[in-house]
Amino acid sequence: MNDTIVAVSTALGVGAISIVRLSGEDAISIVNKMFKEKDLTKVKSHTISYGHIYDNDEIIDEVLVSVMKSPKTFTTQDVVEINCHGGIIATNKTLELCLKNGARLAEPGEFTKRAFLNGRIDLVESEAVMDIIESKSEEAHQLGISGLKGNISALIENFRTNLKNLLSSIEVNIDYPEYYDIEVVTIEKLKQELAKMQQDLKELIDLSVSSSHIKNGIKTVIVGKPNVGKSSILNRLLEEEKAIVTDIAGTTRDIVEGEIYLDGLLLNMIDTAGIRNTNDLVEKLGVTKSFQMINEADLVIVVLNSSEPLTKEDEEILEKTKSKPRIIVLNKSDLPKKLVLKNLDNVIETTTLNTKGIEPLKAKIKELFNLEKIKSKDYTYLSNTRQITLAKKAYQNLLDAQKSLLENNPIDMIEIDLKECFDNLGEIIGITYSDEVIDNLFANFCVGK
Predict the structure, then answer these.
(1) Distances from the Cα of 40 to the Cα of 35, 45, 72, 80, 104, angstroms
(2) How many CA atoms lie within 13 A of 122 on its CB side?
(3) Residue 256 confidence (pLDDT)
(4) Residue 294 burial class via C-beta count within 10 angstroms: exposed 0-12, middle 13-18, buried 19 and up
(5) To which H or E segment does residue 406 belong?
């Protein structure tokens, strides 16, 4: 933490500029050895100086050098950014000179890691940095911005403050067991507060699970027997002829993939081989792969031909997908209807003869994944599996506390569950953490960030 790190913080390649960033107590003096026009150790903080980077007497590049002194920097350490021309040679030579003069090459995400360890940002804000970098839609970008602004952290801290107040009430009860009225007040307060916290935390978890699909996309698998219109539906959704469409059953023998954005929701679309009994070796492999993709999917679109009665293949597909989030599409609704389904959820009718025929499917997808509800809120959600898993643990702690309360267990037993809840919420924002978790988290960052 006390050494000085350096990395190229822009994509390496030909461009307008590239930035070589340093952070650490020797950052300014290291760059000063390479910059001869001005003494950087004497310039004011948060200023930019024009000059050249030298290797002895050889000019490497014409640059602008930004000097930002501790503690008002991203890492809270002295930070220097060398703005070079965007050529590979000049950038690499500048980086090599920094290493030669005493800096160490930064590990992936080490600048952000130092910002976290030095208390500049918490763990949620650290993860939000990467969310912004990786965002592929406006909604995903807004989720990252919300995390970086501290909205999520403030929400978690509010939960922890309420828990802290409850724990204080319990401590009073434990310290003064002879006062019955204190116990009555404490128990009543616990009942009310636990119910409210459970409701709020459950809503946060549910919406966060849905919002994670905005960030990561939904792996959407289209399945059905041959010739029901799977490939036509994929093409309509993608608005291009991605999959080959013919009247010949078994045309699609392998996976066909594509991506679409549905009001900001990324769908990773996968069209599979038609599921049926076949002696064709290649087609049989495709059918096996189709069943495999069902198990890996976030959403399964089961396509049935509404113009013919239900077949054994249809029944098998419905059985294989019943435990998955799914939409049952009765396709070819422009033809006389011969298929009737009873007691099944999320059943819609479509036709691929025109673009409007696919709209019911789009609407159902948005409904299933709470897209309208998410977009009507302020994007204050947990953004990844780590955060959601810890929130679920905290929620279970609240359920355990409520169960103990209803069973009239000693109040200090309830305190144990609430303390665990308090710690799990604290782990979300990084108040408590393990070195292994931190190392794994920042290892996913790009070098220079």
Answers:
(1) 8, 10, 17, 10, 20
(2) 20
(3) 63
(4) buried
(5) helix 385-406
- 432 DSSP 8-state letter: S
Domain with 21 in it: what CATH number? 3.30.1360.120
Q: Alpha-carbon distance 112 to 75, whole Å?
A: 7
Q: In what helix (H) or strand (E) does residue 277 lie, and over which residues does it extend?
A: none
Please provide the DSSP assignment of 315-377 as one string.
Answer: HHHHHHHTTS-EEEEEE-TTSPP-----S-SSEEE--SSSGGGGHHHHHHHHHHTTHHHHHTT
Domain total in the chain:
3
- Cα(256)–Cα(242) distance, rounded to whole angstroms? 8
- The predicted structure's pLDDT at residue 246: 38
Q: What is the pLDDT of residue 261?
A: 79
How much is the CA Rg of the chain, to the nearest whole Å?
29
Helices (H) and strands (E) in the chain, counts: 15, 12
Q: CATH no. for residue 272?
A: 3.40.50.300
Closest CA to 158 of 383, 384, 425, 430: 425
| Beta partners for residue 269, in sequence order | 220, 258
* Cα torsion through 420, 423, 427, 428, rounded to 10: 80
Confidence (pTM):
0.69
User: Could you tell me the residue range of the domain that residue 84 belongs to?
Assistant: 5-121
Predicted local distance difference test score (pLDDT) of residue 66: 96
- Distance (Å, whole) CA 367 – CA 139: 16
d(CA 443, CA 423) in angstroms, rounded, equals 24
> Does a structural domain hold residue 449?
no
> Which residue is it, tokens 């616990």?
190
Q: Which residues of the chain have pLDDT under 50?
A: 179-180, 242-254
> Would you say 83 and 17 are in contact if contact means Cβ atoms under 8 Å apart?
yes
Q: 19 Cβ partners below 8 Å, 6+ apart?
A: 8, 9, 10, 81, 82, 83, 84
The DSSP secondary structure of 93-148, one letter per residue, reads HHHHHHHHTT-EEPPTTHHHHHHHHTTSS-HHHHHHHHHHHH--SHHHHHHHHHHH
